[in-house]
Design goal:
The complex is a heterodimer. By secondary structure, chain A is of the alpha/beta class. Chain A is built from four helices and seven strands; from the N terminus they run βββαββαβαβα. Chain A has a five-stranded mixed sheet. In chain A, strands 3-5 form a two-stranded parallel ribbon. By secondary structure, chain B is an alpha/beta fold. Helices cover about 35% and strands about 25% of the residues of chain B. In chain B, α2 runs parallel beside α3. The radius of gyration of chain B is 26 Å and the shape is elongated. Classes of the chains: A alpha/beta, B alpha/beta.
Chain lengths: ~110, ~375
Amino acid sequence: MNIVEELIGDVLVEIINVDRASYNEAAKFKEMLDEKIKSGTTKIVVDLTACEFIDSTFLGVLVSVLRKVSKEQGDLRLVGFKPAVRAMFELTRMFRVFESYEDLKEAVDSFNK
Amino acid sequence: MEEKGSIKANGTILLVEDEANIAKLYHYNLTKAGFSCEVAKNGAEGFEKAKSVKPDLIISDIMMPNVDGYEFRKMLLADSELKTIPFIFLTAKGEEESILLGYELEIEDYLIKTSSPKIIIAKVTAILKSLEKERGKVVGEVQKAADTMGAKVVPDEFPKLEGFVVKHWHMPYKNVPGGDFIDYIKIDDENLIVVLGDVMGKRWGAWYFAIAYAGYVRSAIRMVLESTQDLVPSEILKRVNDAVFRDERISEVFITLSVVVINHKTNKALYGGAGDLPIVCKGDDVTTIKSKGLLLGFSKEGDYKDYEIDLKSGNEIYLITDGIIESRNKEGKMMGQEGLVKIISEIDSNGDSYEMFQKGVIDFTGNDFEDDVSLVFIKSL
């Protein structure tokens, strides 16, 4: 699984190190995050910098995790949009659903403002 | 980025072999036989390659440095995604004990390196063919059962509405029903509702929810009809969203939906969308309408609006799901929204636009898709 987890303070950072984040990665990624939320994680940043593309299954997982973590008064924020990923988020109005940031530091810091 | 153009029609084989000359020999023969062949030098490297390439079949040596073949096989068996990939041991270890140990690890075959490459290729081909046949049988059985229950996600026939042609094109990913669904609801002689939905997910899991959602949409339409004469997409979307937002069983499933109500008397269409892709309208120019609505099930307030479209004779509307714009050409370039608009712009509206659209998409992708593909085509006569 090419997903690297890192804890910066109390913010869990998930770095998605795949060109194409898709159906193949989605189920495991969801499982990983569900576990983290169960054990109390509420601040999550997903770094998509390495992704040239994300499909709707992977996007569905992001939305599902966002909804779950929101119920716990937490948030899932995104960083790093390649053009095709940006286009997909724009086309499907997902920028209205997720808070997104230009770089990782800014995204992590946003939780402590 | 994955080189889409390099994937051969026969499938991808991962060959795990530490001896360079032997790897070269089998790589040459497999490639010659039409397979795409990836090579790894030991079990550890093989495991990483298996994760990134997701081969159709793995051929592995046993005696290798770092992680040997048995250990490699055990690692694959412990991985829910990789354990079902057919596996063959190809080794010099011909003694009974080694062979039996190999078969204990749920392998398809155990071949001795003295076999000629031709025999290896024949075995690989036979295994893949038999698995494909088996898969086809299972899919056929489930589809038969689904048909018997009337659980269709796409209608068999195109609807009829005076003054209009309404047709759909639907190709499920790898022939397994998935998350796209299409529905037509004829309200009366004047009004037809067209619904195109996409459950976020793939294959059977998404298909199950597609059926559930199609049901939700139908009941929402019934409720709207019972409570008001004003049948508008925004109201349908709002009702479906209210219902699915409250339904805990599907709280982790989200869908996008496009709804178009066509009225043949007024020659107008009303469109509303939820997280869907912009619809494309073709008259004198090609324009797109991007709805503001959020995908269904995410938020209590979905911000659903209606957009009125005047339909003069010859005007067309294209509703699509993401399988079309996310498809790639042989060089790996994605079609995107611009590519879609280009295909539609280049269609000669005097001909059969529905056929030509399909041809345009298939020409672009080389008929190789990575998701369900769905179009609903509406033309005012």
